[in-house]
Amino acid sequence: MTKLLQPKEFIQLIDENADIIIPISNGEPHRLLDILEEHYKQLENVKVHQLLALRERDYINGKMKGHLSHISYFLSAATRKAFWEGHVELIPNVFQEMYYLLRKTAKRPMVIATASPMDEHGYFSLGTNADYAADFIGEVPFVLEVNKHMPRTFGKNQIHISQIAGFIENDQILTEEKSPVITDKDRKIAAYIADDIQDGDTLQIGIGAIPNAVMKMLKDRRHLGIHTEMLTDGIMDLVEAGAVDGMKKSTHKGKIIATFAFGTQRLYDFIDNNPSVEFLPVRVVNSAYEIAKEDHMVSINATTEVDLYGQCASETVAGRYYSSSGGQADFARGVRLSKYGKGYVCMHSTVKNDTISRIKLHLGEGSVVTTSKNYVDNIVTEYGIARLHGKSLSERAKALISIAHPKFRDELTQEAKEFGLIE
């Protein structure tokens, strides 16, 4: 008996009111989703749960309501417009808790995911992913989309043929994430952060031009470790430069730890059959207590807006939802528990050609807090670092005003005085 499925057989596996769980980014199984859409009239109230969808689809845009709908946990280019138009639900979360959240809310769960081909021992690999999906292995039915282009990776993302309901085959090239252009402002911000990073530190680095600029400045460091939710090309470049070997880490010594990878084909080739890279479930990678086991943990992330308390709004733009919380809050908490931990939240000081300050007395209308004032450590702009941890509210306000664009400093100072935040 083979577990290779025909489209009709796959559809027959899906119950009424089923909750289909899909991994992040390249874990998304394109052909299986095609089949769901092609046969959507046979489905009844099926919900697809996913963080960071890759491809815009008819069901995401509300064209299959009552049959197939999308629930997002992090908006992307594929879901953002549909959410704004009311076709997609967005559930607040922090990345670390995704497995627990889905286990609690999904009544008839099934995972569909892309995987590498089966090895001689009967195991598939979830490849670029572990995220929240890997924790469901052995607990719920899995249907795999086997793709020869998916790298075979190590860690806790292996699934045996006995643990799946079936599979299809679809050899589709993986989606690549190109590096953004790095500006002079990005380099100035990155230089402040890079100066704080020492040999032997363990890094979590987010996505974007500033984190990429930081990594380019760390190639002369030695014995750096990696414990990050997202593995990127910049980290691979540090390995190849000899800056990363993980030998000073307290946990997973010598290993690069991540929960998913997203980058160029060069990165996917790098992780293929690479025993130095391990993909672990996000409930482990992003656990504050797991992060804190690394005494010299450094976290680098980005935000869009900061108030004078130090609250970071990182998931809204101009008061409108743009993404979601992701893992920023997880690592902000983790570095606070780390013995010598350091957290950096970075941004350009202004937007729209220096006409709007990103540092404000109060967050803008509609903006939501991603990283609490209680967990924020350092805020960085092109004008320096505001070191906030352990500082009073008035000290925080003064520090943040000092790294605002000069044209807004007097205005911010006056507002802070009128509000009674500083004398």
UniProtKB/TrEMBL annotation:
Give all residue intervals belonging to the Acetyl-CoA hydrolase/transferase C-terminal domain: 263-416
Q: Where is the Acetyl-CoA hydrolase/transferase N-terminal domain?
A: 39-171
Question: Per UniProt, what is one Pfam family of this protein?
Answer: AcetylCoA_hyd_C
Q: Which UniProt keywords apply?
A: Hydrolase, Transferase
Which GO molecular function entries does the Swiss-Prot or TrEMBL record give? hydrolase activity
Matching SUPFAM superfamilies: NagB/RpiA/CoA transferase-like
The record's family statement is: Belongs to the acetyl-CoA hydrolase/transferase family.
Q: What is this protein called?
A: Acetyl-CoA hydrolase/transferase C-terminal domain-containing protein
| Species this protein is from | Sporosarcina highlanderae
